[in-house]
Amino acid sequence: MPEALLPPESLSVSDLQAWGRAQLAGEEARRESELLLAHALQRERAWLFAHARDVVDATSRAAFEALVAQRACGVPVAYLLGAWGFWSLDLRVTPATLIPRPETELLVEAALERIAPDHPAHIADLGTGSGAIALALARERPRAHVVATDASTAALDVARENARRNGIENVAFRQGDWYAAMADERFDLIASNPPYLADGDPHAGEGDLRFEPRSALTSGSDGLDAIRQLAAGAINHLLPGGWLLIEHGYAQGDAVRAILRAAGLVEVGTLRDLEQRDRVGVARRSAL
């Protein structure tokens, strides 16, 4: 737990920044302290530096102390802020959704490369969570129609709110597990960031992952159950020549490629992230 601040009423913005940084562990302590202080003050982060000597009122100071205490106990910064950036979007996030991560932008980039800007494409994002992937694709391809599904009604409520707050209208949200909400629809592209940790993976109990929905993290004894379902149903829901893109764990590239080939898909491959780790499995339904 963080140490209580000393009583003085004249603590400045810079004083609080320094105190927060001292209470938080890790390389991100400085940044996290700044984000939490800006949130408590209801200001932009840049404001802190221009007003470093301003005295902070007691209410804001108490709010900041409470945020730091929660973060010191492990609560993710994104949940404390209630919002997180992804792509060009400002997304609301709650414990009902995963926190969008930078590596998932590789999936968005790969999808955009496969959908021409002027094409009225039919796109699906399965397991949409906060709506990050669906909304990024919908914003970049305004002529496309995007369908976003999730088994969690709470997650879909968050995704719908994110569509409203970002002014994106070309997305339809549906409740259902993977393809269950699709009937016999077919798509030019299906994208998904499914759960891919094994049920017993210790990482699910570490760091921010401790607070994220377990159903969005783990998938069977080897972490591949959801990916098997996505691959198995792809041919029935892709248009001829349509693409399937799936984010997965860095050590799962070989297994995911085998699953995609076994499902009858072609042009199977793997995209690597900035650290040259396997990250996104890609495959296509034959055009014939």
Which helices and strands occur, and which strands form pairs?
Layout: H1 13-23, H2 29-41, H3 45-50, H4 58-72, H5 77-81, E1 83-86, E2 89-92, H6 105-113, E3 122-126, H7 132-140, E4 145-150, H8 153-165, E5 171-175, E6 187-192, H9 225-237, E7 238-247, H10 253-262, E8 266-272, E9 278-284
Parallel strand pairs: 3-4, 3-6, 4-5, 6-7
Antiparallel strand pairs: 1-2, 7-9, 8-9
**How far do the termini sit from each other?**
62 Å
The tally of strands reads 9
Write out the strand line-up for the largest beta sheet, numbering strands in chain order. 5-4-3-6-7-9-8
What composes the largest sheet? 7 strands, mixed
Q: Mind telling me the C-alpha Rg?
A: 21 Å
Helix content, binned percent = 25-40%
Structural class, by secondary structure, is: alpha/beta
Q: What is the N-to-C order of secondary-structure elements (H for helix, E for strand)?
A: HHHHHEEHEHEHEEHEHEE
> Which term fits the overall shape?
elongated
* Average pLDDT score: 92
Number of helices: 10
Low-confidence parts, pLDDT < 50 over ≥5 residues? none
Into which percentage range does the β-strand content fall?
Answer: 15-25%
Give your account of this protein's structure.
This protein has 288 residues and is an alpha/beta fold. The chain is built from ten helices and nine strands. It has helices spanning 13-23, 29-41, 45-50, 58-72, 77-81, 105-113, 132-140, 153-165, 225-237, 253-262; strands spanning 83-86, 89-92, 122-126, 145-150, 171-175, 187-192, 238-247, 266-272, 278-284. It has a seven-stranded mixed beta sheet, sandwiched between helices. The protein has a two-stranded antiparallel ribbon with strand order 1-2. Helix 1 packs across helix 2 (29-41), helix 2 (29-41) packs antiparallel against helix 4 (58-72) and helix 6 runs parallel beside helix 7. The chain is elongated and about 75 Å long. The mean pLDDT is 92.
